[in-house]
Amino acid sequence: MIVLNWLAFLIALAVAAVSWGLFTYQPELLLGTPWGPVHVGILLAGSFALGALVMALYALAWWVGLRRTLGRRWRELRQARSEVENLKRAQVQEIPVIPDRDQQP
Predict the structure, then answer these.
(1) What is the pTM of this model?
(2) Rounded CA gap, 51 and 55, in Å?
(3) What's the angle, vertex CA 74, arms to CA 72 and CA 76, rounded to 5?
(4) Which of 54, 73, 80, 84 is found 20 to 30 A from 20 (Cα to Cα)?
(5) Under DSSP, is residue 101 helix (H, G, I), strand (E, B) or coil?
């Protein structure tokens, strides 16, 4: 997990460096948008941030689904354990008696 965190950090750092480099060294790279001309470096950083946001939403949905599944499993496990305990209490355990041995109180 630590490797994935570092990899994500390095990718974000690389995108920021490329965006800054494009913005600084190629100031004429403008694209027309409905809001006016926007620099390619800003569009690159914005699209990366939007992708990270969508990825975070997918991760959040996965986490919520996992919590729901684990909660359901724990409930089923508690219910099964309580049923086993009820069956143990309901069933009388008989101790076998060996006829040729003395009974100890």
Answers:
(1) 0.64
(2) 6
(3) 70
(4) 54
(5) coil
Burial class (CB in 10 A: 0-12, 13-18, 19+), 86: exposed
Alpha-helix residue ranges (DSSP H) falling in the chain: 2-25, 40-90
**Tokens linked to 69:** 């599944």
- pLDDT range class, residue 103, cuts 50, 70, 90: low
Residue keyed to tokens 């909660």: 71
Phi, psi of 26 (to 5 degrees): -130, 70
What does the buried/exposed string (b/e) look like for 45-56 if buried means 16 or more CB atoms within 10 Å of the residue's CB? beebeeeeeeee
